Amino acid sequence: MDFFGAQDRARRQTRVFGLLFSLAIILVIQMMNLLVIVIHYLIKVNVSGSVPGGFTQFLQWDQYLIVACLVTGFIALFGYLGIEQLFGGGDAVARLFGANLIARGTTDKQERLATQIVTEIAIAAGAPVPQLFLLKEPAINSFAAGWDSSDAVITLTTGALTHLDRYELQAMVAHEFCHILNGDMRLNQTMAGLLQGLFIIKEWSSKILERGGRHRSGKSSGYFYLTLFGFLTLGSFGYFLGRWIKSLLTRQQEYHADAAAVQYTRNPEAVIGMLQKLGVNYIHSRMLGSRYEQFDHAFVGIPGNKTFISSHPPVEARIMRINPGWNIEFLPMDIERIDAAPVMRRQEEKKKQLVWTMIGLGVTESILTSAIPAFDKQIFDPEFGHRLPDTLLPLTMSSVSSEATILALLLASNKSAEQSHLKQLKPILDNGMYQKTLEILPAVKILDPRQRIPLIETCIPALKEMTKPQYLEFKIWIMTLFNADFKMDHDEFVVSRFVIARLDRFHNISKRPQKILNLVGDVRAEYELILSLIAYTEHNDSMAQQAFDAGKKAIAAYSLKLIPRNMVFLKQVNTALDKLYALTPSLRKRLLQAAATTVVLDGKITLKGFELLRTVAASLEVPMPPMIPVSGRRN
Fold it and tell me: pLDDT tens digits, residue range 344-358?
């Protein structure tokens, strides 16, 4: 699965949506002008009996411009209001539809299984662990929402947890991860908001027709219904255009996500089993409420009625894309009972396996490129890091214990300064947090250093449960440790990028880029700084220049120059990564290609080199597969 190509495709689709949406507004303006002319003409005929000059006298440019401004303003206003509902990211969308956050420490067996699956897949992909929400609907369905992977959420219905087995639930979650990593969510949310401007006319006209004209009579009633019929026709026309735009842009998304789910899980039977349980014509994915229509294109199955302009392709076609020879069966299920046991026959299940195969993402293509010298491919670890020690997993289940775990990681990273750092922390921490940190510290000290990043990633969802004021207080604690010795070392840098940068974006503290960078020349200094840091971290001085040259050669950026070691500072790297976040997917790919080539020049990778590569990938919101640092090699 070409991750970078998928993101480029999503960006192109967003531009296509803009063009189609503009075309729809123009057509609605034409329809509205025609409607105004016809109503004006009919009223004139009814009042005076004849109209000298005929129908054409009502074709006036000033009237056309007024109508065009009113229609454009109306659609823009309600489109903005629709987008505003979704400004809060995935969390806001999930709560808008009545979903509730599944706490990391949930005791419910099904919810714990879903949480475990989401965490496994995220760590295997080297992607942020999204928050998980539960929508109390008996239908089998799910959706992913958010503006980017840092604020993404996955929402599962109660029916999905009840009726899908572990492998089918993995397939559903993998399907949603594809939408997260491929950039589909931003397009989906943009469409959900802006298209409200086209849908609102039909909605209002229908409500007025149902309630407003009940007690009207006489000639005024005739004018009222004539006008209302015209607006209902206009609304239906806008509604059709909106639905058509959705179907045109989102059907291929579903095919791509299904294919990615097969690639990620290496279990096509589970993906097909999940699709079959949606039922013929999606009868088992149909939701009870009507409020989901605004966002129906983001669900794995159609939450409403199936039509010829549905946002999803037929479920039969989706199954045949996976396996053309599959014997499709749609067996009955008691979908109304959310506590019912699964009753659908399953194919013979494969041996239990971890869902690690997101290594197939495009980021791996950039690392396993022919431009990189041959090295031991076992550098990629398909299973390591997915399961943390049993003693540490409970620490990631609540925001309080996750905060203490992050503080313990920072303390353990610098054993010589541990006691002095504790003295600085004690006055600013409440006694409970201080004691919790001391309690966790011994377990963190014996943690395999290669599992530090997976542990941080697993803590992130619980940390997102903090309120903004709580997070700002937590950030002060972290910054106190950073500034304790007036310098930022490698360990502090890694934690800051994985915790602070990610949570800053989640709480909208760090600003999103206003300008997209699409030229290497715009970020030449930043490219040089990142590659220089990696070259010096992974290799000694005699090999640093050679590694840097290999990195720039891999992307044909021959003008880049190695920065002297004494001019490379981690605080500058922080600023550089913030700027590089505005890169297009193709430029992110080139940077990661160069970084990966620089790291593995000798076919090996140290722990620090591995963590830097993961940190760069995380800062760019690019998934990065697990890798095995060479034991005994630390810089």
Answer: 333 333 334 444 444
CB 342 within 8 A of CB 164: yes
Running DSSP on this structure, what letter comes out for residue 633?
-
Of the pLDDT bands very low, low, confident and very high (cuts 50, 70, 90), residue 362 is: very low
Q: Are 21 and 78 in contact (CB under 8 A)?
A: no
DSSP symbols for 471-509: HHHHHHHHHHHHTTTTS--HHHHHHIIIIIIHHHHHTT-
Specify whether the CB–CB gap between 99 and 155 falls below 8 A.
Answer: yes
List the beta bridge partners of residue 380.
627
H or E segment to which residue 41 belongs = helix 3-48
Count: domains in the chain:
4
CA distance 599 to 535: 7
Tell me the pTM.
Answer: 0.77
Q: What is the pLDDT of residue 98?
A: 86
Please check whether residues 161 and 269 belong to one and the same domain.
yes
Angle between helices 218-265 and 315-322 (to 10 degrees): 20
Q: How confident is the model at residue 4 (pLDDT cuts 50, 70, 90)?
A: low
pLDDT given for residue 351 in this prediction: 38
Nearest CA among 134, 132, 85, 77 for reference residue 294: 85
Given a cut of 90, is residue 216 above it in pLDDT? Answer: no
Helix orientation angle between 541-554 and 585-599, rounded to the nearest 10 degrees: 150
CA distance 482 to 468: 21
Gap between the Cα atoms of 412 and 492, Å rounded:
11
Looking at the fold, whether 10 and 49 belong to one and the same domain comes out as yes
Domain boundary among 478, 506, 534: 506
> What is the Cα–Cα distance from 47 to 24, expressed in whole angstroms?
34
What's the average model confidence in pLDDT over 193-209? 74
In 3D space, the residue among 584, 591, 633, 597 whose CA is nearest the CA of residue 616 turns out to be 591
Find out whether 188 and 297 touch, Cβ atoms under 8 Å: yes
Domain boundaries, position 137? 91-179+250-322
Q: State the residue for tokens 């279990």.
A: 267
3-state secondary structure of 539: coil
Higher pLDDT, 276 or 306: 276
The alpha-helical segments, DSSP class H, found in 266-300 are 268-278
pLDDT-based confidence at residue 173 (cuts at 50, 70, 90)? very high
